[in-house]
Amino acid sequence: MKTITMTKNDAAELYNSLVDVKDLKSKKFALKAAKNMTAIKEALQDIEDLGKPTDEFMELSLRVQTIIKEDPDNGKDKIEELEKENKELVDQRKSQLELVNERLLEDVELKLNIFSEEVLPDEITASQVNKLIKIIE
Question: Can you give the pTM of this predicted structure?
Answer without folding.
Answer: 0.83
